[in-house]
Design a protein that fits this description.
Chain lengths: ~375, ~850
């Protein structure tokens, strides 16, 4: 039996080039042969092949951490360090990034796009003030907003005021002429606490997506505007009405997994690794990455290729002990009387027995006693 | 067959040793720290007691009667005068003390014990979580006894309410905890009773795991473990004596602490809080933990990797005259390594000849194995006797011969092509010879590389090696489906020259074919008196081979019915990694023929160069004066352009690019200009129709180098980049003190305007050295990083395999993929994991 996609391909070509039925049969026969020959052999140690392909390719990658993509703020980790980061399944990548494509409706011209971009970027109070002063005698803080910046960001002073009130629950916030007065409710407050309060006030979230520190709108080849963001906040980005939410991309795999689920995380691992490998000008068949992504996401949560991740959760004590921290694994095994079933590779190497892979996999079904007595037992 | 391989061990259970078990499994009670008496004989009840096993050849074990090979050794035991905390279990002991009542030993849970989940499936982590939740209970819910805070003062001191708990007290408390509660707290009481974590009995390991070595002086040097055990026994005996003599409590306490210290360091000599125990020389002792742990420890050094016999290692050197799947083995090696051959009535005569030749005459043999397994070395004395008794059933370990299977390996063994099976070819000399075409998979060169050779010793091993590991099975890589073996360097250049415009007469053509190993008179007859290079190349092609491809200069390469009609053969068609024609041949005629074909075209290329010569010289990279004039102008213009940019930057007439500062803008524009400059120089060189000379020929054929490299030698090396930027390190505002502060000129930031041939100016040389050093650093730092990544990957993925139902599963039979790679295809058996339907259609239609 030929897989569907191959059959379709043959049919497609047959129609297009008007190939005679006799030839189609011959073609189908040969494709079938090629397919049958190409099918992977049972027992093939495909895991180790995958590891080899990655491992051998990794030695050819550069260590240069940063790729200069035009703007100083837009650095991204590439090459080997990024690959290690992906496989470690770290919660936060060292350079989080997000790409938000905009719907055509909201990106008719560059000015519109700029406004959207500024809406995406996180705005803190400290960025829209003209002045912030501490009155030492009265222990209060005076904030004067920057009118021009407010206008640029399309923000109303009242809106900002409300945000401050919400952000500083322990203070009385009053509007006075030309500014906002913040006064702690607690009367007995020393100066350093007022200073801390000032810093806290400056970091009040006013607008935009949390964690997005820089935005750069870029028009791609298809004429669609894409906002490149430093920092990642997938959850909030999905709620933007201006964004083409189906095509938002983030390089934070853990975030993808929590927001969109494990299948999305698997796709993200695939995409990110592929991106790194291709970026190094290295060719690697995609099924190797697929296998690794599947292993990492098999249980429903993203697991790293580390002693606490995949390698630490093997059934075999000896397999875990021979990787890292052997003493810890052996001690813990003694406590619960753990039994090592000796069904994977390394522990059979350790005790000098055939490994259950490849030619070590087939087993004889005949009973040993029966063989010795020469009579088959029932 | 007497060597059937059965899976003998089906599981290993881990557990703790209780005092009863220790006593039961022991054959000696150790009572004295002395090792030997005055005659040098082991003391009874000492640490080297003869009942603990044998370490001297010839002696027999007093316990089991076995000799050095049979006896695995026997444990002894030491009764401790006072109990001692086991270092590695200290944390668990503390947890137990915290979770159980100090009076009644029940779990400090308000709920009845039965209410705590009875779930067998409860995970270890859940149990641990419960343990921590019981930490702060102040009163026992069962007997109302008041509970105090338990603290661990690392490594082994346990405090209750800031008063020290003696191990005796701890043990008493732990004994009170019943089996049910033990299970609730995460232990399996069958294998680990909590009181066993306080040692009252110390197992003394057999001498076989701590053998003493006899130095040249005849002096005996004991193992580190024996030293440590000696300390423990000594202190233990003193403690006993003092307790019996009724010594003051303070002395006993001191000795007890000392015993605790010795037992702690016996388990782990790298505990941070206490000083490591040392030799008299000051060197720290290697005790149990250090033996197991880390790369040099038991696991990674001796269990995951083992030493083998029947192996050889020496320097490699190239020999293109041998086939790709052969390895040249020096005669010396061939006479030392052996292949066992079983005597039958049919080969008796032949094997007798080998025994007759003995170990000194080639194709002889070194050993004869009798049917009872006794191995006899063939010497002048034994030879005659062995020759006489040789009969079917005996095994002769004969010397290596041509055609034997050997496994050849070069480290680092990064992928499976680093270990391949070759056929042996015994050659004179002292180095292993390999065909240079196989350098690529091994990543070998001949600047002093060494490689390893292993001889499989059983029929099964040889069969597996031949079917699964031979070179021809490894030509297509599983990485991306490209051919890792192909023509390289001279072989490419040679074929390029041959197929480009070489004309030969028939004699020359046949001479070349002979030297390649083709002796086909039918094919020779077809040659005319004048033979073109293309015709000569076609002789090697199969008669029904068709191929359409491209060469490096984008021209068509056409092969029709085994004749090269059009195009030049170069790296793209026959090279490694790309080599489309090689892959085409392999997929049509199989790997065996493919490999033979590769060997032939490889030799042909080299033979052509041998006959017609290929020499590079400095003058090869001379440029005509008009070209070098043009290059000089290009560089000059670029430099002027940069000057302009700098000027614009200084008088602020430059517009910053969006999102960039003015500094970044000018930097970027300068970089662009200089990058363009070098590209342009490269273009000028490649477009200027230089005389074709060997250096250029190498670049054209793709064997080595490119026009850019040529431009770097003859015209301009170009910008030296450090982390994607121009060089901006060094002094404040400048790279070197000879420049002005803030200078942005090309030369002050690492632009090298000269070529290598002209020579670099001092500041250019300096910048070049900077980037050179940086790239060395990069390599040095990358190797361990990628090595560790590789180790982690292979550890995580090593037991993933394809099952008989085509699913991908791990060792615990969890399904990872339902079908491998969504289509179940092997990359190395298809074209990069795809079935090339158009190609098959084309083939069918052209038939």
């Amino acid at each position: 039996m030929l897989p569907k996609h191959l059959q379709e391909k043959i049919d497609g070509y047959a129609k297009k080039y008007k190939i005679s039925d006799k030839n189609v049969i011959e073609i189908t026969k040969r494709v079938e042969e090629a397919n049958e020959y190409g099918i992977i052999a049972p027992g093939e140690a495909i895991g180790i092949v995958t590891a080899e392909c990655f491992g051998e390719r990794a030695t050819q990658m550069t260590l240069n951490t940063f790729h200069f993509s035009g703007v100083a703020e837009m650095n991204i980790t590439v090459g080997l360090p990024r690959l290690i980061e992906i496989f470690d399944a770290r919660k936060n990548p060292s350079t989080p990034q997000m790409e938000i494509p905009l719907r055509p409706k909201f990106s008719k011209n560059i000015d519109m796009v700029r406004i959207v971009a500024m809406k995406i970027k996180e705005t803190l109070l400290g960025e829209i003030i003209q002045e912030i002063t501490i009155n030492i005698a009265k222990s209060n803080i005076m904030v004067i907003l920057d009118k021009k910046k407010l206008k640029d960001l399309d923000l109303k002073p009242k809106f900002v005021f409300d945000k401050i009130v919400a952000g500083l629950k322990t203070c009385d916030v009053k509007e006075v002429d030309g500014g906002i007065l913040i006064k702690p409710k607690d009367k007995e407050i020393n100066l350093s606490e007022v200073y801390k309060l000032k810093e806290k006030a400056k970091s009040i979230h006013i607008g935009g997506l949390k964690g997005i520190t820089y935005v750069l709108p870029v028009k791609n080849d298809e004429g669609i505007y894409i906002v490149h963001c430093v920092g990642s906040n997938l959850k909030d980005a999905l709620e933007l009405e201006e964004a083409d939410t189906e095509n938002i991309r983030t390089n934070n795999i853990f975030e993808t997994s929590t927001v969109l689920g494990i299948e999305a995380a698997r796709a993200a691992i695939l995409q990110e690794s592929l991106h790194v490998i291709r970026g190094q000008g290295i060719d690697l068949n995609i099924r190797h990455i697929m296998l690794l992504a599947d292993v990492m996401t098999r249980t429903g949560i993203v697991k790293g290729v580390t002693r606490t991740g995949i390698s630490g959760e093997k059934e075999s004590v000896i397999a875990r002990a021979s990787f890292e921290t052997p003493i810890k694994h052996i001690i813990n095994a003694t406590l619960i009387g753990e039994r090592d079933p000796l069904n994977s590779v390394i522990e059979n190497v350790v005790i000098n027995q055939p490994v259950p892979l490849g030619t070590g996999l087939p087993k004889l079904v005949a009973k040993k006693e029966a063989m010795e007595s020469g009579k088959p037992k029932k | 067959m007497e060597h059937n391989v059965f899976k003998k061990i089906s599981g290993i259970v881990f557990g703790m040793l209780g005092p009863d078990l220790i006593k039961k499994m022991s054959s000696v009670k150790v009572v004295t720290p002395e090792l030997y008496d005055r005659e040098g004989y082991p003391v009874d009840g000492g640490l080297m007691d003869v009942r603990l096993g044998v370490i001297d050849p010839g002696l027999r074990c007093k316990t089991c009667g076995g000799n050095l090979r049979d006896c695995m050794g026997h444990f002894g035991y030491l009764e401790l005068a006072r109990p001692v905390v086991h270092l590695k279990y200290a944390d668990i002991i503390v947890n137990f003390l915290r979770c159980t009542c100090r009076e009644c030993g029940k779990i400090l849970s308000a709920k009845k014990v039965t209410e705590i989940t009875e779930d067998e499936e409860e995970t270890v982590t859940e149990k641990k979580a419960r343990m921590t939740s019981l930490r702060n209970v102040k009163k026992c819910p069962h007997c109302n006894a008041k509970q105090f805070a338990i603290k661990l003062e690392r490594p082994t001191t346990i405090l209750e309410d800031d008063k020290r708990l003696s191990p005796i007290d701890i043990r008493l408390r732990l004994e009170k905890v019943n089996d049910e509660d033990v299970q609730k707290l995460g232990l399996n009481p069958q294998y680990a009773r909590p009181e066993w974590m306080i040692l009252t009995m110390l197992p003394v390991p057999p001498v076989t795991i701590r053998p003493s070595i006899t130095l040249e002086t005849g002096e005996r040097s004991e193992d580190d473990l024996t030293h440590k055990l000696g300390d423990i026994v000594r202190i233990n005996q003193r403690l006993f004596e003092n307790i019996n003599a009724g010594a003051p409590e303070i002395i006993i306490e001191d000795l007890w602490d000392l015993l605790q210290y010795h037992i702690t360091t016996y388990f782990d000599n790298n505990v941070t809080q206490i000083p490591p125990a040392r030799h008299r020389s000051g060197q720290a002792l290697k005790t149990i933990t250090e033996r197991i742990k880390s790369k040099e420890g038991r696991f990674r050094q001796n269990l995951a990797g083992k030493r083998v016999n029947y192996a050889a290692r020496t320097v490699i050197s190239p020999d293109s005259k041998i086939e790709l799947d052969e390895v040249g083995v020096p005669l010396k090696v061939a006479m030392d390594l052996t292949v066992p051959e079983r005597v039958t009535e049919w080969n008796l005569k032949r094997l007798k000849k080998f025994v007759e030749n003995g170990p000194t005459k080639y194709v002889g043999s070194n050993y004869v194995v009798r049917p009872d397994g006794k191995k006899k070395k063939i010497t002048d004395e034994t030879q005659e006797q062995l020759l006489e008794e040789l009969q079917p059933g005996y095994v002769v370990e004969r010397h290596l011969m041509d055609g034997d299977i050997a496994i050849f390996n070069r480290q680092p063994s990064l992928h499976r092509m680093s270990i391949m099976a070759h056929k042996i070819r015994v050659l004179p000399g002292n180095s292993f010879r390999l065909n240079p075409a196989t350098c690529n998979p091994y990543n070998a060169d001949f600047d002093g590389d060494e490689m390893n050779l292993h001889i499989p010793q059983t029929e099964e091993a040889r069969a597996e090696a031949e079917i699964l590991m031979e070179v021809q099975t490894q030509v297509i890589t599983p990485k991306d489906g490209s051919n890792i073996i192909g023509c390289n360097d001279d072989a490419v250049t040679g074929n390029y020259i041959l197929t480009k415009d070489l004309d030969l007469n028939k004699e020359e053509a046949i001479y070349l074919l002979h030297s390649v190993g083709v002796f086909d008179p039918v094919k020779f007859d077809r040659l005319k008196s004048k033979v073109t290079g293309k015709e000569l190349f076609s002789v090697l092609l199969p008669d029904d081979f068709d191929f359409i491809g491209k060469s490096k200069n984008k021209e068509k390469v056409v092969i029709k019915h085994g004749v090269l009609v059009e195009g030049i053969i170069d790296k793209i068609t026959i090279g490694g990694d790309k080599g489309e024609m090689v892959r085409s041949i392999i997929s049509k005629y199989g790997t065996e023929f493919g490999l033979q074909f590769l060997g032939r075209i490889f030799r042909l290329g080299i033979a052509v160069l041998l006959k017609y010569g290929l020499t590079t010289s400095i003058s090869d990279i001379d440029l005509p004066s008009d070209v070098s004039q043009k290059i000089r102008e290009t560089i000059y213009n670029s430099e002027r352009r940069v000057d302009q940019l700098i000027e614009q930057y200084h008088d602020k007439s430059m517009e910053p690019l969006p999102g960039l500062t003015l500094e970044a803008t000018v930097e970027r524009k300068i970089m662009e200009t200089l990058d363009k400059c070098r590209t342009k120089v490269g273009e000028i060189v490649s477009e200027s129709n230089l005389n074709v000379n060997p250096t250029i020929m190498m670049a054209l054929s793709g064997a080595k180098g490119s026009y850019l490299n040529l431009a770097m030698m003859s015209a301009c090396v170009g910008q030296q980049a450090l982390r994607g930027k121009r060089i901006d390190l060094g002094y404040r505002g400048r790279t070197l003190s000879l420049f002005k502060k803030g200078e942005l000129t090309p030369k002050s930031r690492g632009f090298i305007r000269n070529g290598y041939k002209e020579g670099l100016s001092p500041e250019e040389y300096f910048m070049h050295a900077m980037t050179g050093r940086d790239s060395l650093m990069d390599t040095a730092l990358r190797t361990p990083k990628s090595g560790y990544l590789y180790r982690r990957l292979s550890s995580a993925l090593q037991d993933i395999k394809i099952e008989y139902d085509q699913t991908v599963r791990d060792a615990d039979h969890n399904i990872i993929q339902f079908i491998y790679g969504d289509d179940g295809l092997d990359v190395s058996r298809t074209e990069n994991g795809k079935i090339n339907v158009p190609k098959i259609i084309r083939e069918v239609l052209s038939d």
